[in-house]
Structure formats: structure tokens, C-alpha cells
Design brief:
CATH topology of one domain: Hypothetical protein af1432
Radius of gyration: 22 Å
Oligomer: single chain
Number of strands: 7
Strand order of the largest sheet: 5-4-3-2-6
Largest sheet: 5 strands, antiparallel
Distance between the termini: 36 Å
CATH superfamily of one domain: Hypothetical protein af1432
Order of helices and strands: HHEHHHHHHHHHEEEEEHE
CATH architecture of one domain: Orthogonal Bundle
Amino acid sequence: MGLKTIDYDPERSDVVSTESEKVDIPDDFFAVEEPVEVEFQEEDPVFVEISEEDPAEKESRIRQQKSRRVSLNRCEKAFTESAGAVKNLMQDMRARPRESLKAAENIVGEIVGTVLQDQDATVQLVNMKGQDESNYFHVVNVTMLSLIVGKELGLDDMEMNHLGVGAMLHDFGQLKVPDKILRKTSPLTDVERKVYELHPSYGADLAKRIGRLPKAVIEIIEQHHEYEDGSGFPNKLTSSQISKLSKIVAVTNAYDDYCNCPQNVKLLTPYEAMAHMYAQEKFDKNILSIFINRLGVYPPGTLVRLSDGSIAGVTAVNHEDLLHPQVVIYNANIPKEEAAIIDLTEEGDLKIEETIRRNEVTSDILSYLNFGDSVNYFVDPSAKK
């Protein structure tokens, strides 16, 4: 950033503890390294040299790529179908609320079955090119990620059902917010923001009128923007006043907003979003730690620049070493069907230097890596960690 020095006050630093024994955020997680002088020069990109690759290794790599594409295609189809079902559900919610609620429960039941079907089920990136249905993509993302966190927390079947339905209906109240506010890309005025910040209350009122929704679901709808430090809305609740399921959705909803919300002036990379959330006091630290541990410091779909200068995309998380995931390397001189897939835990000094935003690379690179314009997630029960 061009800084010569930084100041810090150790007396104002807090030690973050977690009740979960199975979650282990690395000591150097988001650490600030010693400053170094770097001289930048214009030069051609550096690529991983594989010209003398063993034929057997090449064949194995091609099989990996084919398997990855099959997995992504399968998840993309399932994700698109779920987004379409959510769209129909939300459109019918006002006219036929009871029927729509049943449809929501069915969708959640299918997703819960997928999440719980296989203990090795893996979060897979689904790359969607268009943004026209972005709100419905957001709903599926939040629902999927919330259920994954719920599974890690050991929620029972009823809690998982309530969590899924609540996550799916969390923005129910936006039906009463004018589209010109929801779709506005410039900063909201004070009046517009006050109207927007009422949507959790609107949603809770609408949900209560349906008459069948459990209290836990209504709490999620009303509390998904409430934060631990009392800075949320609409009621400025603090930690002890917020339900556990609402805290889960608060994490996944904020994360997806940071990464994908078209109204955000500066979208963050998944890594930046997690770093930003981890540095705040807004979120339950145990839930956030579980979320980061499950998706990895560099979630699938993160664009990165490696220490040798090459550009790569994260394809899988190494849960034993979150800082060294599996990546696919961009090399314009090699067909993308044969692109090198490497595990950074096996590459010695090769490491991730920085994350890259999608708008900072060409469409050719995004296409080569099978990355789209937004970051969406789905579960592939046939995949292995």
C-alpha cells in the first residue's frame, strides 16, 4: 500500500478464544508480515514449468480436471434448479403463503438430505455468468452455507429444518421494500436506509400472519442483521438477545453480501470478506471460526497470485492446512483441459502471495479457470474432502 510504517496499540488488543475444540484457526491467519522493500518491474507473467512432466502425471492431472468439470456441471445444474425453485416460491409467497411454505420446507429437506448424505460432502464452487437472478442466487448461497455450518455445530433434524427455512426466507420482508431502493447501486439516502433497515421487521410481521412458521424461523427473519456488539438492525440486539440460528445466518448473509451483492461499491474477494469479518466484533466468534474452518481461508473459487508470479484459482480446501489449498494454474500455453492442478502443501516454497478480484483479470483467464462473475456455493455429496 506504499506505507513506510504502521502504528499499533497492544493494550487495546483482545485475545479471541473459542469454545469449539475442533476448530483451529492458524496462528498466522491474516498475519501482518515484516515490511520489505519491493521493486516492481513490468515483465511477462511467470508460469509453472511443466514441459518435462511425466506422462503418467499428465494423464492423472487430465483425469482430475475432467472429474472437476463433471462435479462443477452437476452442482451448477442443481444450484440453478434450486434458484429457480426459490424464485417461484418468493413470487407465490404473497398469493399462496401456506403452499409456498410447504414448498420451502420441501426444498430445504432436499438440501439437508444432500448436506447430511455423506460426511465427506464438499462445498463446491458454482460459477454463474449472469446476475439477473442474483437475489435468488443469494438466497440459495445463504441457505446452503448456513446448513453446512449447522451440520458442523451438530444441530438436530428439527434445528436444521428451522435453520434452512429461516435462511431461505430471511429476506422475506424485502417484498415490502421498493425495488428502486433494493436495486440502487449508489449510496442510499438516510430515508432510504431507514426504509431498508425495516425489512427484517416487515418480514417477521408477514411470517407471523402465515400462522404456521415456528418461532425459530421467525427469529431468523427478524434477527439476521443483528450483531453481537449491538450495531445491527432493526432492534440493536446484543449477543445474549440473538438466537443461535440467527447468528449463523448473520454470518453467511454478511459473507455473501460482501462477495456478491451488486449494491456493494467494492466487492471483496472471499479471503478479504473473511478477513474483514474476522477483524470485527459483529459476529459470534465460534460460529465464524467454524465457518472459516469449513470453507477454508481461501475458499474454492478464490483467484490468487502465487509467489512465483503465476495466476491460479483455488479448487479445494486442505482442512489440515488452511493456508495451502489445492489450486489450478493458469497458463495460456497449455490447453485448459490439461491445466496443472497442484497441492500447495507439497510445493515447498510455493505459496499464495495475494488474492485477486475478478475484475482485475481478463475474461480469458476467468474462462480458462472456469470462474464466472459471481461466487456461489453448492454441495456435491459425491465429492471427497
